[in-house]
Amino acid sequence: MKRILLLVTGLLSLTLTAQQSYYNDVNLTLTGIQLRDALATKVINTHSNSLSYSEIWTASMITDEDPNNANNVLLIYGWENGSDGDVTNDLSRDKMSNGGNVGDWNREHTFANSLANPSLDASSTNGPPYSDAHNLRPSDVQRNGQRGNRLFATGSGNSGTVGAYWYPGDATTGGTDWRGDVARIIMYMYIRYGNQCAPNLVAVGTQNSVDANMIDLLLEWNAADPVSAIEDARNTYHEDIFNATAQGNRNPFIDNPRLATQIWGGTPAEDRWGIYSTDTQAPTVPTNVMVSNETSSSIDVSWDASTDNVAVTEYDVYVDATFYQTVATTSITVTGLSASTTYNFTVAAKDAEGNTSAQSGIVNGTTLAGGGTGGGSDLYFSEYMEGSSLNKALEIANFTGSTIDLNDAGNVYTLKISTNGNAMWNSTYSFPMGAMIADGDVYVIANSSLAVCTGVVDDSNNTITGFNGNDAIGLFKNDVLIDILGTLGDGTTYAENTTLVRKPSVNAPNTTYTASEWDTFPSNTCDNLGMHTQTLSTTTFEAENFQVYPNPTNGGFIYINTKNNVEVSAVTIFDIAGRQVISQNNVSNQINVSGLQQGMYLLQLQIGNQTVTKKLIKQ
């Protein structure tokens, strides 16, 4: 499990050169079905303590402890630090907030209970397989409900639904990679409980040629997402039967992901024991790394191909020393970046045996300031019409400085609606393939029965535009809420028989509905639909002319100098893991950073109506 937002430092991380003694009585020279069955015998015979379902609460608080906050547990399928107002995507949660209510965490059966045949609780709800600790991971209650018993399938970006299926999430958009965790859990459940938990009952994809029960997608996930420190910690805890809520056995595919390759084939996964690899030579370091095509939110990175004694298969790309994405080509577009911010990029080459080169030299790239026509940080709702009958429409504006592809592989936008105060989103609208919004332009979605404002509609969708004045509507980017109309779960009427137009001074989305950002017009007003104006104040333009010094700093204070001494109203500093470390309002243009450790930080300033971000180095 690779993470962008989380730096795992507090848990045991194993670097192995030989297998654990746990496997001393297993013939590890076997392959295929024989190795599968030998490992099955081992995990079955050592599963000496049958935990009750209630004991999983206690075990999870220990094995899944957040290494950056001992009061929290990590939540499977989560990726966000809790600052966006959407609790369902949180990566971490207070240990004691466990239960079945909104905002709680509960116990996710990664191999869903009802998908097993017979179901996991067919014999008893107070013991395994229903309460096998290797299968149960902390999860947000609502996100657990969204997954339900959906089968796993291929996808991209953060966790979420893919049609009728479920994608656990990866790190391509700055989130958390859960693919390996899921794959290794399903493999364990298969060898522990046999055909009752066959992988083809819980995942869809190509059938494995060695074992018809295996799905090759799981082998791909196991190879793509290396073992995390959390997985190691879970294994170490549960083998030690002297721990009160340990069950005595281990998950072999966590100890060595290459075991899956030895059994079922596919892309070679990491050999943590170093006993299966015949090729130990790493590829050459990628050279001539270059950046190009900088925008306010993305930078293209390219490099010359590496060489190897066998074959180079892929490259790992790092942004500010943190893993970003694995690609098979020699170029990538890094997205989701902050405007006016300098990033450094490195690349490492990998071969078919998993040998990895050293990272390349660092190349720096700086994103452009916010859009030329307005400087906005992202798309946002610019108009809302809740008119008579079915005269209903939504408008989305783009003032980012670049044309936006609404279905770009790295940045997929959707709309979601919650009706009548429902605490969860009911329906999702996906933009048609090829849908684009040019800089300074808008996109209009309307009800097919719209009888007014003709000629300005880009798309019709009766589900998303069947709203009433008390229905919350969210604009999402990679399944992360970025802008909202109304308040999720509130049900209060905020705009009935009304047309709302975003004020020209607003240049960014807002995850909290703020009535003061909107001008109100009578029902069925068409004057503004199909176009939008954004006018930045003088103060906003002046925000582009500021200086932070000294930077790098080794002192106790940094100072902010703005054009015409415009006041900085708020400052927030984030560490490289995305955690907020300083938040200060009513700033007198100086900030006390004496408490920061050495390292790199992101400094976010609120100057007038504009938020600007700059990199800060503490020496």
TrEMBL record:
Q: Name one Pfam family in it.
A: Por_Secre_tail
Which interval of the chain is the signal sequence? Answer: 1-18
Q: Where is this region: Disordered?
A: 116-155
Keywords attached to this Swiss-Prot or TrEMBL record, sorted alphabetically, are: Hydrolase, Nuclease, Signal
Q: Where is the composition biased (Polar residues)?
A: 116-128
Give the GO molecular function terms: hydrolase activity; nuclease activity
Q: Report if keyword Nuclease is assigned.
A: yes
| UniProt-listed CDD domains | FN3
List, alphabetically, the SMART domains matched: FN3
Residues covered by the Fibronectin type-III domain? 285-370
Does Hydrolase count among this protein's keywords?
Answer: yes
Q: Which NCBIfam families match?
A: Por_Secre_tail (TIGR04183)
Its family?
Belongs to the EndA/NucM nuclease family.
What is the name of the protein in this document?
Putative secreted protein (Por secretion system target)
Q: List the source organism.
A: Kordia periserrulae
The organism's taxonomic lineage, starting at the top: Bacteria, Pseudomonadati, Bacteroidota, Flavobacteriia, Flavobacteriales
